[in-house]
Amino acid sequence: MKCSVLQQNFEQNRHVINQWLALLLRDFENRMPSGIEWSAVLHRDEEYVHAHILAINADDPKLNAASLHCGKTAASRYRAAHDTSSAIPPLPKPELLLRPRKPRKPKLTRKQQTRVRNQRKYEAAVYEWEQACTRVHQVNQKRLRLWRGENSAHLREARKLRTHVPEMKAYDDAMRALQDHYHDAVGKPCGLLRDGPRKERLSTVEHATRKRQAAKLARDIKNVKHMRRETAAEAQNIADQTRMFAKNLETREARLLLREEEIRRREDDLTARVSALDELEIAMEETLSAAEQGEIHFSARGFQLSNPNITGRLQNFLNPDLRQTPARKIFEKFLKLIKRTVVGSTGHPPASTDEIPAEDLDRPGL
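Below the sequence we write its predicted structure tokens.
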């Protein structure tokens, strides 16, 4: 975008520049190593809007900027991997003349005339020394100029003779890869072309068509990103609903487990009651049969069974250590009923109609 176009409709075009700058800085941060200090400046002082990024490798004690350059780092990696350098060796430098030694200052003397004479001689010697140094410097500069010219010619001829430089190829490949990466990460979403019209030798109409296609591609990318965001939001909503449904399902499962446990407990209780009632029925039948056969003898304090088999089967109902169950209470009432019936039929007055004494129930043989 030209600066004049941006200035004419700043409010409408500002979001385009902001989008481009945000993508640019995000890509720069992703490409750079950690520990750098950088600052970005947006410029509108030229024909097109552009940005400058100033970076410092703060973690490096030498502040080596070459480590932030992808082309130079690629060349360095190639040299380190192959342990060779394809640099053309220069011509040996010429031997330079040495500067003459500077004359020493005269020692202080007592006489004034001697000091003045020595100072004049010293000044004359310094003048001659400076002239000699100038001549030596001129000779050395001449030799260096000749060497630079010969060395430049030597390097030019050597570059013409050699075919290719592997380090330079690694450098160029890294820079092309950087331009491709920049176009994919920044240029394509902003509707920019990878190459200009001169490189592909396109006409103005063809280049304008390419630009329209690139702008359409940028809009498609933006729409795809919007659809991705909507899809992600919908997926998040579905995930939230799934988690809520799973939580409700876990709550219902916990309630069902509690109900199943309660039903199981009731079933066990009913089973125990049915079993107790079955035992009660058998005990009542055996007790009634024993009473009819005269095997139960009642006294004033309780009763006594003469059949030991019946006594063993009635331990669950006669043991005082067991808790009072409904079946046991019914059996005790049944015994009381039999006692009243037997005593009434034999004519012996009952000693007591209370419950069977515990001390008698605990006695052996009962």
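Residues 204-292 form the longest helix (89 residues).
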